[in-house]
Amino acid sequence: MLVRYDERGNGLSDWEVDEITFEAFVRDLETVVDAVGLERFALLGISQGCAVSIAYAVRHPERVTHLVLYGGYARGRRRGSPEEIEQAEAMITLMRQGWGQENPAFRQMFTSLIIPGASAEQMQWFNDLQRITASPENAVRLRQVFDEIDVSHLLPEVAAPTLVLHCRGDAMVPFEEGRRMAAMIPGARLVALEGRNHVILENEPAFPRFLEEVRNFLGNS
To answer: Which residue has the higher pLDDT, 110 or 179?
Structure first.
C-alpha cells in the first residue's frame, strides 16, 4: 500500500491556512500516519519532503522501518553560501511577480530546473500544474519555508536504515546536498543516479534504476 498526501497550502489540501512552517509540515505527516492507522512503515521523502521525513524518523524511531530519501537536502538555500542566498531571493521575486499569470514564462524557470530533460509537452504540463495547484501567495510562502530548512543536527540521530538517491546533474538541488545527507546519517547508502531531472521521468535511465534500488532496499533490509 502506498499512502501519499498533498502538502498544506497546495494541491487538494486546504489553501487557506494561517500556518505554513516546517513544524506544521512535520505535524501534518504525524496526523496522516495516525489517521491511516499505520504502526510501522517505510517512509519516502522527496525534495523538501526529505527534511520532513528525517524529523519524523527521529521523533518516531519505533515506527519507521526504512527511510528512502530522493533529491533532498537537510539545509535550504538560505542556509548555504552567499550565492545560494542570492539565488533564493531572486526566485522569490520571480514567484511574486509571475506565478499566477497565464503566460508561463516565469514558471518556466522552475520547470527548467526541475525537469530540464523533459519534452515540450511535459514542460507545458508542468507549467500548468504549478499554476493550478498553488496560489502565488502560497507558492512564495512555501518557498520561503523551504529555503530556511535546516535539519542537519538531526541527521546523526536517524536510526532507521536509510537509502539516499540523487541525480548527479540535478539542477534544482545539487548532488552534493544528497551526498552530505548520506554522509551524516549513520549507515546510510548513497546511490548516484545518472540524469539532470529533479523529478525523474519514466522514460529516462534513472527511473528503472531508482525502482530497482528502492525495491532491493525494502526487500533486503
So the answer is: 179
Q: How confident is the prediction for the chain on average, in pLDDT?
A: 93
Residue 3 lies in a domain: no
Q: Specify the pLDDT at position 143.
A: 93
Does pLDDT of 221 surpass 60?
no
**pLDDT(26) > 80:** yes
Residues 115 and 162 in one domain: no
Residue 206 in 3-state DSSP?
Answer: helix
CA distance 80 to 122: 31
Is 33 part of a structural domain of the chain? no
3-class DSSP state of 212: helix
Mean pLDDT of 132-151: 93
Please give the tally of structural domains in the chain: 2
Residue 162 resides in a domain: yes
Q: Are residues 60 and 163 in the same domain?
A: yes
Structural domain for 126, as ranges:
82-144
SS3 string, 3-56, reads CCCCCCCCCCCCCCCCCCCHHHHHHHHHHHHHHHCCCCEEEEEECCHHHHHHHH
CATH of the domain at 52: 3.40.50.1820
Q: How far apart are CA 192 and CA 164, in angstroms?
A: 9
Kindly report the number of other CB atoms within 10 A of residue 36's CB atom. 11
Q: Which helix (H) or strand (E) holds 69?
A: strand 64-70
Category of 45 on φ-ψ map: left (φ > 0), alpha (ψ -120 to 50) or beta: beta
Q: Is the pLDDT of residue 105 over 90?
A: no
Could you say which DSSP state residue 157 is in? G
